[in-house]
Design goal:
The chain is built from 12 helices and 5 strands. With 318 residues, it is an alpha+beta fold. The chain has 2 domains: 96 residues, OB fold (Dihydrolipoamide Acetyltransferase, E2P) (Beta Barrel), CATH 2.40.50.140; 188 residues, Hypothetical protein af1432, CATH 1.10.3210.
Length: 318
């Protein structure tokens, strides 16, 4: 059974992926284990009330476990699994292809599309910057290709960063021709690099995405800014105006101080990248919610990223 197909009162006897793990204290003393277990269609909380000390490594974040229990929808705490048995999976139990989400396009196709887009950048300096960070022989390309775009809300899976950066850059490229005054080369370069700080801010384990210590201490925007700035300073003759324009896109792409950007978008290019980045993230949330939606349902539950529910009327009718 897929997680999105589970119904209240249903017994569970299957493999699931441990997405989160936390040991908590019981009110009356002792400890219980709160897990988030999931597959490619979503995750659900799972409670282990007894025998926590006997479950050391088998239920670490990123492990595949065999679960026996009951799926319940609690009036206060929502959907959860009351676990009766939790054990390590044996050989042939638990296929990661069923448990891990992924992009609709292959990484090979997305890389080809990215190479084609980079080839349209006319500025030799910006091309050199992109080649130094995203070129096939660059030290960061393999990590960029495989990295997730987020921990939870959108493209939170392997190749998610490549998918997100490419879709934002392709949209920015198309819209640049619509509005006058936009430097397309700067906008496309900034769009491709706006989230590069996530290489250091998130772990690269495809089974267990989490924030790194550097991500928590410094944040993805400063990490990305300093990575791009260091390379710019190593490139001979890089124009100061182009450097300022690209770095401003990275610093301002969250669009608001309260959302983590140290400055607001102050150029056409930065404003465009911020708007498309925000749109890409919100539409990515629709993709995630649609994968989690039970068959026959038209509405998702409340989603924090969207600030409400999402409607999928045509999907429910089909």
């Amino acid at each position: 059974m897929l997680v999105r197909e589970l119904s209240d009162g249903q017994d569970i006897d299957q493999a699931l992926l441990v997405r989160e793990r936390e040991v908590r204290a019981k009110r009356g003393g002792g400890e219980f284990l709160r897990l988030v277990l999931g597959d490619r269609t979503g995750g659900v909380a799972a409670m282990v009330w007894d025998g926590v000390a006997d479950l050391p490594d088998i239920c670490a974040q990123g492990c595949v476990v065999w679960v026996q229990g009951r799926y319940e929808v609690h009036a206060r705490y929502g959907p959860q699994i009351r676990v009766r048995l939790l054990r390590a999976c044996g050989d042939g139990e638990g296929d990661l292809r069923d448990l891990l989400d992924g992009p609709p396009r292959s990484a090979v196709q997305m890389e080809a599309d990215l190479r084609e887009l980079v080839g349209t950048v006319q500025s030799l300096h910006l091309r050199a910057l992109l080649d130094g960070l995203l070129g096939p022989s660059s030290p960061t390309w393999a990590q960029f290709r495989d990295a997730p775009a987020a921990k939870r809300y959108h493209q939170a899976y392997q190749h998610g960063l490549l998918e997100h950066a490419l879709s934002v850059a392709q949209a920015v490229s198309a819209i640049s021709a619509t509005f006058p005054g936009i430097d397309r080369d700067v906008a496309v370069t900034g769009a491709l690099l706006h989230d590069i700080g996530k290489l250091e801010a998130y772990t690269s384990d495809r089974c267990a995405i989490d924030m790194t210590d550097r991500g928590k201490l410094q944040g993805e925007i400063p990490l990305g800014y300093y990575r791009v700035r260091r390379l710019i300073e190593e490139l001979p003759g890089f124009p100061e105006a182009a450097a300022a324009a690209v770095l401003h896109i990275i610093l301002s792409h969250h669009g608001a101080l309260e959302h983590g950007s140290p400055v607001l978008p102050c150029t056409r290019e930065a404003t465009l990248v911020h708007m498309i980045d925000n749109l890409g993230g919100r539409l990515g949330s629709f993709d995630r919610l649609e994968k989690e939606l039970p068959q026959g349902s038209a509405w998702s539950g409340f989603d924090r990223a969207l600030g409400g529910g999402a409607y999928f009327g045509e999907r429910a009718a089909a």
